[in-house]
Write a structure and sequence with these properties.
448 residues, eight-stranded mixed β-sheet, 36% helix, binds adenosine-5'-triphosphate, binds magnesium ion
């Protein structure tokens, strides 16, 4: 249309009718989070923030997209994540190799190094946000999922490993979760792992006929991961393999035993699982997982461990570190399973406005209410036309909103500088009138 020829008085024209466009869908394995379920996420996030504050962990927010090299270097080339789960792409504009973060520890370490955050001493940090892995979507396993993570960087002693485990345990307690078990292991230090690795390869070579293709491929790259197999045919061989624990030296054993003593002192029970190895290459000494029987095969709700060599690997001055990450979807699923989720949230008050001419007064009154912390849902016109709808239809909406009370800004009441207050829940809708002046005080009294 030629803009010059459009006169001011002309009504805006509806766009020309075209064929209905094909429906668009969210990417498979990536979910929209709608109300009211989103309120349960906010509730969980609030619990997390309060608890992190209690343990003096501070929030860190890093980008969703990182250089691909960060994960290849950080997680290890022969890991499930780097081999087959990453969303990697080339930036069309400058050719940079980028990846949607599959986990956040590598990014946290990058940020800590980049901003020289350990300069003034060790740091306790936490994060919360989406991660991306190209996996087969199923219950408890998505392509966009969310993690809460806690990381303590610059601390070498076992007491911080214990603190982090107690922190996670406190979260389960705070949420009221039951049937969560802690599994613990020590991976020792690199030379100890090397000695074990050689013994393990020799052992696995003796059983080569039992190994599946993936295991054979990993025999000389990542034999430890073979012990983590889900293939039933390989269970017996995995059970009988040389145990890393038997290769640990004095210092590694001391670290592990002190951690155990501190967990005992905190009343945190655990089982030692010598086959617990975790998916990333970067761990040493302590590794652990919190698992539940209640979620089927996606039963690990939280995993973590020590990663004393990652900071150096990513280009920082060598410094020890330890951390964990929990899967938000799985924790919420477990809360749901155990009937621990809060019920939906509603506004306290629904404002009924029989005539649009009252709106300026309504806005002033609602502003005063909201300033006092009262949650108010205002009636507004919906659908075609400019009308607000009949009283009857407004009351229907007020009932459906779940609000406990209605405030009715009727013309007669307003003429007397008053409004009507009506209970929507108890009995047969008791009601009373109250002056507009001091309305916020009246309402907060009625709500308390
Ligand atoms: P799994 O063995 O179940 O694949 P993982 O060892 O790959 O887990 P981590 O990388 O340790 O998982 O991530 C920590 C936590 O994040 C897991 O314990 C789990 O609760 C959650 N998590 C991992 N991958 C997914 C996913 N694809 N969808 C939902 N949650 C996930
Ligand atoms: Mg995985």
């Amino acid at each position: 249309m030629d803009a010059d020829k459009t006169s001011q008085s002309q009504a805006p024209q509806a766009p020309a009718k075209t064929a209905k466009p094909a429906a668009l869908h969210a990417v498979k394995g990536m979910n929209d989070l709608l109300p009211p379920a989103s309120a349960q996420w906010e509730w969980l996030e609030d619990k997390v923030r309060v608890l992190m504050q209690r343990f003096a962990y501070r929030n860190l927010r890093t980008p969703i997209v990182e250089p691909t090299a960060l994960f290849v270097r950080g997680l290890g080339e022969v890991t499930d994540i780097v081999e087959k789960e990453m969303y990697s792409f080339e930036d069309r504009l400058n050719g940079e190799h980028l990846t949607l973060r599959p986990e956040a520890t590598a990014g946290v370490v990058r940020a800590v190094v980049e901003h020289n955050m350990l300069y003034e001493g060790p740091k306790r940090l936490y994060y919360l946000g989406p991660m991306f892995r190209h996996e087969r979507p199923q219950r408890g396993r998505y392509r966009q999922f969310h993690q809460v993570g806690a990381e303590a960087l610059g601390f070498a002693g076992p007491e911080i490993d214990a603190e982090l485990i107690v922190l996670a345990q406190s979260l389960w307690q705070e949420l009221g979760l039951r049937d969560v078990r802690l599994e613990l292991n020590s991976l020792g230090q690199p030379p100890e792992r090397l000695a074990h690795r050689q013994a393990l390869i020799a052992y696995l070579e003796q059983h080569i006929d039992v190994l599946d293709e993936e295991a054979k491929r990993r025999l000389h790259t990542n034999p430890l991961r073979i012990l983590d197999t889900k293939n039933p045919a390989m269970q017996a061989v995995a059970e009988g393999a040389p145990k890393l624990m038997d290769f640990l030296g004095e210092a590694s054993l001391a670290h592990f035993n002190t951690l155990r003593a501190l967990l005992d002192a905190s009343g945190v029970s655990y089982t030692i699982n010598p086959r617990l190895v975790r998916g990333m290459d970067y761990y040493n000494l302590t590794v652990f997982e919190f698992v539940t029987q209640s979620l089927g095969s996606q039963g690990t709700i939280c995993g973590g461990g020590r990663y004393d060599y990652l900071i150096e690997q990513i280009g920082g001055k060598p410094a020890p570190a330890v951390g964990w990450a929990l899967g938000v979807e799985r924790v919420l699923e477990l809360l749901k399973e155990q009937d621990l989720l809060p019920t939906a949230t509603h506004a306290d008050v629904y404002a009924i406005v029989p005539d649009a001419s009252a709106m300026p007064v309504v806005f002033e009154a609602l502003h005063a209410l909201r300033s006092q912390g009262v949650s108010v849902q205002m009636h507004a016109g919906a659908g075609e036309g400019l009308g607000l709808g009949s009283m009857k239809s407004q009351f229907k909406k007020a009932d459906a909103s779940g609000a406990r009370f209605a405030l009715i800004f009727g013309a007669d009441e307003l003429a007397r500088q008053e409004v009507t207050w009506k209970s929507l829940r108890d009995g047969q809708g008791q009601q009373e009138t109250t002056p507009l002046e001091g309305l916020a005080t009246f309402v907060t009294k009625r709500l308390s």
